[in-house]
Structure formats: C-alpha cells, structure tokens
Amino acid sequence: MLRARELFGEQAGLVTGAVFAVSAPAALSGRLKLTAWAKRTLSGPRAIVYGLVVMGAAFLPLLTQSYGVVAGVGALTLCAALLAWGGALLYPFEMDTVVRLSGDRLVATHYGAYDTASGIAISLGNLAVGALFDTGVRWLPWAALTATGMFCAGSVAWLHRAGHLTPKPVPVPVQG
Q1: Which of these, 30, 71, 82, 107, could form a disulfide with 67 (CB 3.0-4.6 Å)?
Q2: Range of 10's domain?
C-alpha cells in the first residue's frame, strides 16, 4: 500500500484492490500445483530456501523509482504474486519442519514457541522497515526486504547443510 501511495497518490486504494483482484486468483491457481511440485521434487529445507528466495525477490520490482501506471500496477502485481508463490513453497514445509524437529513430542508446545518467536521477529521487522520508510530513501525498504529474504534463505541453507534441521533420534529408555 505504501508503494502504491507513492506511485498513485489518491488512487492507491483502487490500485491496491486491483492488484489483489488480479494476483489472488493467479496465486490461488498456482498454489496447489506449486506445493505439489515442491513435495515431489524438493526436500523440506530446500523448499523453504526456495520460498525465501522467491519472497525476497518479490520486492525487486519495487526498487525502480519511475513507473507509468501500467508498469507500476505490474510491479505491484508481480510483488504480490511472488510473495504468494514463495509462501506456497515455504509454509507447508515450515510447519512440517517444526513437527519433525519436535520429535513428535510436545508438538503444540514447539509450534507455539515457534509462532511466538515468529511474531516477535515480524513485529521487530515491521518496526525496522517502518523506520527505513521514515528515512525518505525510497528504495531502501525494498532493498532491505530483499536482503532479508536472501539472508534468511542462506541461513536456512546453512542450517540444513550443518544438519541442524534433521531431527535427532529420541533415546528410548531401556527397561530392565
């Protein structure tokens, strides 16, 4: 909405509605196919990495400062669609990873802790991006969001390679 307001002023609400009217059906139609493809061809951690890369790349079209109406609406629509497609790659595998890492013990507790940590990170991220908007450097928030997505993708890839996303076997007590 902020980028739409920069580009279209008073028409931002109408443009934002049009963007979601166009991108939502595209995202919904591709979501099931994309998630099914990822389940067939990618490991969970790799799907999460790809999802984060796509979500980070979603903000690249917003870096350009000068748009005509059609290009501006296209950039916003592409951003919304890429965020939805990245989410389709990420979210099913994110939940599965929490369950696997819990060792099938106290799954709700593990997911609650994950959800709480995510909520805190999202709140802090929103504050940081808001502060970046306040700098007046118009490209900075979009560059920071892109970099954040790429950093998170790299971090998940590193955690996977280091074996931290593979559940450790739970020792079974020996009865004697």
Answers
A1: 71
A2: 2-161
Answer yes or no: are the C-beta atoms of 58 and 137 closer than 8 Å: no
* Total domains present in the chain: 1
The answer as to whether 129 is a domain residue is: yes
For residue 42, the tally of other CB atoms under 10 A from its CB is 16
CA separation (Å) from 153 to 26, 127, 176? Answer: 24, 21, 47
Q: How far apart are CA 142 and CA 63, in angstroms?
A: 6
Residue 118 has pLDDT above 80, yes or no: yes
The pair of structure tokens assigned to 95 is: 């939940």
Q: How far is C-alpha 58 from the geometric centre of its chain's CA atoms?
A: 9
Position 129 scores a pLDDT of 94
pTM of the model: 0.84
Q: Give the total residue count for the chain.
A: 176
For residues 47 and 38, the answer to whether their CB atoms sit within 8 Å is yes
**pLDDT tens column, 38-63:** 999 999 999 999 999 999 999 999 88
SS3 168: coil
